[in-house]
Amino acid sequence: MFDYKYDDLMNPTLKALKELGGSASNDEIIEKLIEVLSLSEEEIEDIHKGSTTKLEYRGAWARTYLKKAGYITNSKRGVWAITEKGNATTSVNKDNVKNIVKINYTNSAMSDEEGIGEVIENNEIEEFTWQNDVLEVIKAITPEQFEKLCQRMLRELGFTNVFVTGKSHDGGIDGKGILKIGGVISFHTAFQAKRYAGTVSASIIRDFRGAMMGRADKGLVITTGTFSREARKEAQRDGATPIDLIDGNDLAERLKELSLGIEVEMVEKVHVDGQWFKNI
Q: Rounded to the nearest 10 degrees, how much is the dihedral formed by the CA atoms of 33, 245, 23, 20?
């Protein structure tokens, strides 16, 4: 079980960013945290909810608190970087960080079973909430409907000649499609759609690769669950046909970008400048 709380991850997160050269993506930070904390596979794969692990969820809260306290910042592209204040700090006092956030963000509220103070304007954590909602809906549809959803998504992403094999499940292949790059180079891709609540193991990736050998240039596995660390390594193993992976959170993001079953409502915020009226 993953026993680290979000505030336990504050200093390891700072250390990870410094070891990564001062900036890194979410995935790079997670990989470095695994190394820094010497986490076991059981700890790494311990699920918080949906396809989000406790490490990912609590790591997101740690980054949010460090950001609100001024130690790190992030760009619209999801790259985190250490600030001047963070660079000048060798270690933070987690209680001081929490107090800084509490004082400066008075709209904070206690949230969920983790007992984490939810910070206003916390877009990263909100994402986990809507993604889980999407995945719960998808898990309620039939396996055949999920295959059709994957087919539609791949078409929207630019694949052509996309078809599903149906109940025959062609040796583990649920469908195929062609992706043309630059209108010149074509990749024949086989995909497997796993409407899955748990973790996809490395053995599933190996079996899928065996089924697609000699029949496709690339492979793609799409799941509502998550992939084990060993599965991710197996998918990109040197000398083997590469297989791309889309886990539950990635699937939700793609569906959102393509507006497939997800609508984003933009809320207008109106600010009245009282001083302007006084000075008229």
A: 50
